[in-house]
Design brief:
The protein is mostly helical and about 120 residues long. About 55% of the residues lie in helices and about 10% in strands. It is built from 7 helices and 3 strands.
Length: about 120
Amino acid sequence: MTRPAQSNIKSQHVCKNFHKTIEFIGRRWMGMVIYSLLDGPKRFHEIVQKIDGISDRLLTERLNDLVSEGLVTKRYLDASSKKVEYELTPSGEALKEVVLAILDWLEEKEKIEKTGGI
């Protein structure tokens, strides 16, 4: 990857929507919630099982945030409204490459750190 020239960095304008998106995705546990849904729809308890350490309250909050942003759909499986399934929308699915790229970067970073940057 080629780095921009130092003079270009100072003059580049970072879109406020970009910043807002990074802040949204970077919220505590948000990435893991998105990651847990990459392989298909899940019920609440299935997501909890995939994310060790997240509280029910925080998972509910993150799922509601994702639904509000149009990245996840919430579907009621029965009339009693107790059985709910969450699934990424097409916009949420579009994050798959981003999430996988971050995982690749983490693996590369670990390799670099193990070898001392060589």
